[in-house]
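Dear U.,

For the methods section draft, I wanted the exact inputs and outputs in one place so we can describe them consistently. I've listed the two proteins in the order they'll appear in the manuscript figures. Please don't edit the token lines directly; just add comments below if something needs changing.

First protein:
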Amino acid sequence: MPSTLTPLSRSAAVCRLMGFTLIEALVVLAVLGVLLSLAVPNLSNLYAKHQLQAQAEGLLDSLMMARSEALKHQQPVTLCARAAAQCDTQPNWQQGWWVFVDTNHNARRDEGEALLEAREAFPLHMFLAANSTVKAYFSYGPDGRSQSPGGGFMAGTWRFCRSADAQGWQVVSNALGQPRVEKYPVQQCP
């Protein structure tokens, strides 16, 4: 039986089978918009958690580099909480830190002491607190052991947190100066 469709109506029927109507396209866009609005907050939260972990691993890297440099050059190397142009006397690790060769081993960066690394301040939504033994600085002696300017061993913990999270990251250095990074449950984040 011959087709009753004219060539023009046949091509319109084929196009109709191959494409979308405007309403169908708008429905798909609306569904994608709803799904995207549900995913974006989770992605930004995931990004912030990853950024917090990266900051903790950055401190770990700085500690490991300081220890390595102290061993390699057989001289003291110190990390200190940083203020504008010097080590912070009111320790605030959130402003970043310096790693430097501490030739006179006084835990302060003096003129002429080589700066090995400078870390920038933290994003505003993150917090870093250090326990009292590492409030302002952390030093390695020429033998790669953690050592205060007075010669005693140093050990300490730096805690990274966000007020929105139940879990944070901490960097712990033992009496030998070997650091590690681990998760910890946040009770209170400043």
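Second protein (the one for the lower panel):
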Amino acid sequence: MKTLFTTIAILTVTLGFSQSKFESAILRGKQMINDADTVTAMQNAVNYFQRIAQKETTEWLPWYYQAQIICFMASSNSDLDAKENQLNKALELIEAGKKIEKNAELLALEGFVQMLRVSVDPATRGQKLSPVVFGLYNQALAIDPQNPRARLFLGQFQYGTAQFFGTGFEEACVNVKKAYDIFENQPSEPTIYPSWGMGSARAALANCNQ
């Protein structure tokens, strides 16, 4: 009996240490994303999360962060062919993450990728991809109505669509404001889960308040 309790105690400590090590690795990677100000630094962060994904095969977060970084790289890429390749790669990474766990964060990021694909050629892609984008954001919000990224991206896409068609911004700005409020009320402690987007929410809200 004593041996059994000792074994359980050792397993508990080991599992706790393992989880702590994973969390430390993810937090370090998030800091790499925050500090990355060059394409090389961003690619280093992608490679870092790729190594974690290869080791932690039951975790979706390393796939998510690879895709997030590649989205950032694509958003500032003026080479449209390279941009398209990056966005397709981001979709592959998201699909890999969804095989582990289909959740609101991955669906919201998938919508963000498709939104970037629309922005490459709105006149051609808008009609085909807009329902896909809206569908992904609505799926994400059905899972988690308080997900600020899904709410923000939905508002941003509604705003862009309203600009394109010359319609009102009311519904878009309602979603932007909701997203901003959710961000405002989030805990400030570091977390391994996605926490980005407040800067974009602030800028989007400023556009709504003009």
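Candidate sentences for the figure legend, describing the second protein: The two ends are 71 Å apart (CA to CA). The CA atoms of residues 71 and 87 lie 6 Å apart.

Thanks,
Y.
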